[in-house]
Amino acid sequence: MGKSTLPRRSPRFYKGPPPLQLPKDGFKHPFQESDIDPGPEQGKEHPKTIVELRMCALSNRIREKPNWWEKMQDDAIVEKWRDEALQQTGDDDNPEWELTPGMVNYVLEELQGYADLRDPETGIEARFKRIWKSDGLIPVSLREKLLAAVAPLEGVPDSEKDWHPGSDGLVFDLVHPSLYSVVYGRTMRKGPRSGLKALVAPRFESGDLKFTSERFQWLPSDFLIDGDGKATLASPYINNVHPTQHKELCSVIPEILQRALPMFERVLSDTIRQLLPMRIVTSGGRGFNNEETADCIWEDGMPYPGSSSEEECEEDQEAWLDKHSFKTPDAREHYDGDLKVMGERISLKGRTLQVIVKLANVVLTPEKPDYPGGKWHVEGMRNEQIVSSFIYYYDSENISASILAFRRATSEPYNHEQDDEKCMRVLYDIERELPLVQDVGDVVTKTHRCVAFPNLYQHQVQPFHLEDPTKPGHRKILVFFLVDPTQTIPSATNVPPQQREWVTEAIHSADANSTLAKLPVEILTMISKKIDGTMTCLEAEEYREELMAERTVFVEENDKGYFGYVRTRTSLVLTID
């Protein structure tokens, strides 16, 4: 094996950004309207060029390979990657999207930066900006404990299985936050000095009203993170996990959350740090008034339109464009260590975190062999203040590749001349009057893999199917939704369990020497029905239908409001054997 000769450049000298700290006003979120020119203050970045997105896709495909950080040390392997990448075509209609030798070289040099970010102990590594993954985060012994703990939930009679509404019997909800959620006006909350009072809907700034529910909130549990990073359940219960019947699950969830903590820290750090430099710099050209513009603008500058009518102006512009070629930008000459800043991160140790827990299985059968995929969405509404999601794909069998795709809202491209639509199409594949949304990339979600990402990104489960259509198959996930650590919302700490069945069972199992134990069963049942803040399973299911209907409308509004402000399609598929 030959030693790689890829350059090992030291990061260029600079003082660096200030130390990362938790934001005083909370983390950026997608539960807001876009301004006329939305930008980083709303969690939106400038769009990347199509060729930079293809560079990221190439890097991701390489880093999807087993032991890529070792293979990159071998000259022969690196040259094979280089040759295969250069053979990839851009697009028949857009040859400008082909990767140049400089772009491929930059990607290969940048691999060292990603290797330096990788934690060999946990396997945590960066996939795309703000998206992290690990295939070795959860030890085998802990996975086995989880499998054993969820078995009783999976083993209920068919008549008691909770199939997610609208999933056509494909998604088996073991623990889902939409069931027994907070219902404003009905759910009770314990005050610090007073008794139980009904919860009321929160009030946020007016711009967030359409993204705020006046009816429901998912219910998190509080977890205490000590100075060493150990997680302990601080709330009396986890919503929809029976505290006595499912003790093992209540025990294993904090253990897995403890392992997820470093991934949450990395994601949140990425959302507050200064933006990294672009790999493709679109500046340096000259426009109408000789001001600096995007580099794809012609070197001599586009002539100022002299025609009076809009139609004549467009004809003149098209005629000029037909005679001139683009000066498309290339990658920076070398990777200069930009990724190094991603090694610095905030700490969530010594804090109480609010986390919403979800467990769900996709179950495929020969009768129903296909999962159609999901919708583009973010998690929760403004009420939950979710800033990051962590998904542990702990078991799968007999299914095709399962892929999780991501996209982000962007600001408008800068340094571009007005009405320079052709340049916008070539650089970003942006069309006038279409949403400003860009694909980030996708992650293969195989067994044992953990993925963490910010709620600023929409995500979508891609379709998958049975590998062998004659046999059943499944995919099982454990999900943590992290509430903004700088905020506090009603949780299982101050909201008593709403499951009337739990309350009835607790009353019936009272100590034999207690007064309750001496009462007839009929009286005990009547007492449980009179306790404020509880509901039957049927009532909870009816509320869930209302909640899901409300959030279906929210997803549409969020698409238009935050993610709806010049949509791109990207040729990101690059294959590296």
UniProtKB/TrEMBL annotation:
Residues of the DUF4246 domain: 24-84, 103-505
Region: Disordered, residue numbers: 1-47
Domain of life: Eukaryota
Pfam families associated with the record: DUF4246, DUF4246_N
Matches recorded under InterPro entries: DUF4246, DUF4246_C, DUF4246_N
Protein name, as recorded: Uncharacterized protein
Source organism: Thelephora terrestris
